[in-house]
């Protein structure tokens, strides 16, 4: 029945003649093979607003059957149709024709009582379902709401964890309509009334014209080598074009937490202490220390040592040398880890320092003492041998003594001659 005027959609006489109106939409049909199963259903493919109205089914046979059905169309509409983060959006459940219905809303399967989104966010994106009930009959329809802006991360609550010396990715995926020339990254200052710190030296950003991934434009960034002081808040911002040429500035902030291992040792006791330090441990609920050793064919053995933030090694020996891993967890599970290597030189604080060090010093001291004694004895032996050789030849000793005396006398004489020649000439008698 259209406009309160009955019109035939499909009719079949007892003779088998089938009548179909010329103006009848071709997307409506009634399958004849189903009649043998007493199924006289009417199928409508690609339903439109023109298909709404009252439908009457009449079947004449041994039993006359008449059934009246009111077809209504339910639609979920968004106004405006193009929704951008921060904009106002109205959600309506359009029912045609409109009776008094009880309406229930749900977003992604969870009940919701909102009909107006004053500042749309990515959390409002998803499947909006309108469910209506009328005299025990329930109908529902779903429409997907896309909120243009930054899809990843969805809000400003993201926290990223990275260890010193590693790399970390800072995600920032925009939806379609991004003005790529107006995308920027910046760091926020940790204190009020202070200038924002510069980006790290190893900070890199995706170039303009990066490939579109699943309808998103990637403007992510990353830090190649995380250093102490790189922690803090990083903000990605850009311009999104809305309906009627309007522009919206969209930004997303994320927190970077830097992890490192602090080491302290005692020279007296030989104890080493490793502390798992995070720049912001507010979301960490538990820690654990693992010792990793490697064997033949790169086999790896992981041993849980303690579930604590601090690891104390009473005495460092060869068994403690290797890789130590600190894992930290939050209420939702694993957050990240940081590693620390104890090398052979670090093990000297234990037995190597107390025992081997003293032994090396003692050996060097004794060696030096033996060398001094050897030199003294060797010199005494040489003096002794020289005296023995001279006493064996007394005549030679006399000759040597006379030769030395004669040489000394001649040297004294030559000195007097030179002295007399340097003054007034005088006769000298020799």
Topology overview:
Elements: E1 11-12, E2 18-19, E3 28-29, E4 43-44, E5 53-59, E6 65-71, E7 73-79, E8 83-84, E9 89-96, E10 102-107, E11 110-112, E12 116-117, E13 126-134, E14 137-145, E15 147-148, E16 150-152, E17 159-163, E18 168-170, E19 173-174, E20 178-188, E21 203-205, E22 212-213, E23 216-218, E24 221-223, E25 232-241, E26 247-265, E27 272-278, E28 286-294, E29 300-306, E30 310-313, E31 322-330, E32 333-342, H1 351-391, H2 394-421
Parallel strand pairs: 8-15, 17-26
Antiparallel strand pairs: 1-2, 3-4, 5-6, 7-9, 9-12, 10-11, 10-13, 13-14, 16-19, 18-24, 19-23, 20-25, 21-24, 22-23, 25-26, 26-27, 27-30, 28-29, 28-31, 31-32
Question: Can you characterise this structure?
Answer:
There is one protein chain. The protein is an alpha+beta fold and 430 residues long. It has two helices and 32 strands. The strands form ten sheets. Strands 17, 20, 25, 26, 27 and 30 form a six-stranded mixed beta sheet that branches. The chain has a four-stranded antiparallel beta sheet with strand order 11-10-13-14, with no helix packed on it. Strands 16-19-23-22 form a four-stranded antiparallel beta sheet, with no helix packed on it. The chain is elongated, with a radius of gyration of 49 Å. 13% of the residues are buried. The C terminus is likely disordered.
């Amino acid at each position: 029945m259209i406009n309160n005027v009955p019109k035939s959609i499909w009719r079949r006489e007892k003779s088998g003649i089938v009548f179909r109106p010329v103006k009848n939409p071709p997307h409506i049909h009634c399958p004849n093979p189903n009649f043998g199963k007493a199924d006289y259903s009417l199928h409508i493919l690609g339903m439109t607003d023109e298909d709404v109205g009252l439908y009457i089914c009449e079947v004449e046979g041994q039993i006359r059957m008449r059934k009246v059905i009111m077809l209504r169309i339910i639609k979920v509409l968004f106004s405006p149709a193009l929704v951008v983060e921060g904009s106002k959006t109205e959600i309506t459940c359009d029912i045609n024709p409109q009776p008094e219905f009880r309406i229930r809303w749900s977003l992604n399967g969870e009940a919701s009582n909102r009909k107006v989104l004053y500042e749309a966010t990515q959390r409002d994106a998803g499947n909006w379902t309108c469910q209506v009930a009328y005299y025990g009959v329930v109908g529902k329809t779903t429409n997907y709401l896309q909120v243009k802006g930054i899809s990843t991360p969805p809000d400003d609550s993201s926290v990223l964890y990275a260890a010193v010396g590693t790399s970390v990715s800072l995600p920032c995926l925009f939806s379609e309509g991004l003005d790529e020339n107006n995308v920027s990254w910046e760091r926020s200052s940790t204190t009020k009334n202070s200038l924002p710190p510069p980006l790290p030296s190893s900070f890199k950003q995706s170039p303009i014209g990066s490939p579109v991934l699943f309808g998103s434009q990637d403007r992510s960034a990353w830090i190649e080598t995380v250093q102490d002081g790189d922690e803090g808040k990083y903000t990605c911002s850009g311009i999104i074009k809305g309906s009627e040429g309007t522009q919206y500035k969209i930004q997303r902030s994320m927190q970077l937490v830097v992890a490192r291992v602090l080491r302290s040792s005692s020279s007296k006791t030989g104890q080493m202490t490793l502390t798992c330090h995070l720049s912001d441990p507010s979301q960490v609920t538990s820690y654990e220390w693992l010792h990793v050793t490697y064997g033949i064919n790169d086999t790896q053995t992981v041993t849980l040592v303690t579930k604590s933030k601090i690891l104390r090694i009473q005495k460092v020996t060869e068994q403690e040398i290797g890789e130590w891993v600190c894992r930290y967890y939050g209420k939702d599970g694993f957050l990240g880890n940081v590693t620390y290597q104890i090398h052979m030189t670090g093990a000297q604080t234990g037995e190597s320092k107390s025992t081997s060090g003293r032994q090396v010093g003692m050996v060097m001291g004794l060696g030096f003492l033996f060398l001094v004694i050897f030199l003294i004895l060797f010199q005494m032996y040489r003096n002794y041998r020289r005296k023995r050789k001279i006493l064996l030849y007394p005549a030679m000793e006399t000759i040597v003594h006379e030769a030395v005396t004669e040489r000394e006398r001649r040297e004294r004489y030559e000195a007097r001659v030179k002295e007399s020649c340097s003054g007034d000439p005088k006769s000298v008698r020799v």
